[in-house]
Description:
heterodimer, A: 112 residues, 5-stranded mixed β-sheet, 4-stranded antiparallel β-sheet, 0% helix, 46% strand, B: 114 residues, mainly beta
Amino acid sequence: DAKTTQPPSMDCAEGRAANLPCNHSTISGNEYVYWYRQIHSQGPQYIIHGLKNNETNEMASLIITEDRKSSTLILPHATLRDTAVYYCIVSAKSGGSYIPTFGRGTSLIVHP
Amino acid sequence: EPEVTQTPSHQVTQMGQEVILRCVPISNHLYFYWYRQILGQKVEFLVSFYNNEISEKSEIFDDQFSVERPDGSNFTLKIRSTKLEDSAMYFCASDSGLDTGELFFGEGSRLTVL
């Protein structure tokens, strides 16, 4: 019961922006969009999350469409170290936390 | 920067043996999790723990598994009688509960069951 759809792989030139799309057409009003990444076999790393508004932090920007049915994670200046699997996750919060459910994600390869 | 630490980094065990994987979550965090990732497959949720009890668990988390927070700092995952299919990376995570949206994951413990 995948809540999100992501392309299996993408590539990007070093120094260019990487734009990773995610479809979540069945998202509910109380569900947030979270992005994580996993570099090689390391533990997943949180990147950013949002509900309705676009968000930006030191790692990335998150653009959520007005109807909330899709979003794009933007890495403004990709580096080789950004090569990883990127996961788009939709989840509601329960209490003070939530349970991320990881799909297959998008394997991003940043090349020189 | 605070981090979640896991030990051992790699454990090899014989089928049928008991295994305990240890995690030290970030101090003052309130929510704790175990996930696993079989080689080449997705990261799968096992269990979440809050206020000294299991808050949610997946179908994978059967009677062979148990979790404990014995001393207020460690968070352990025990597998009573390991099977070959338990071979995987096991990730611990913690969350402050302060609504930051960020789960902090450890580097994982690789379990190999022979």
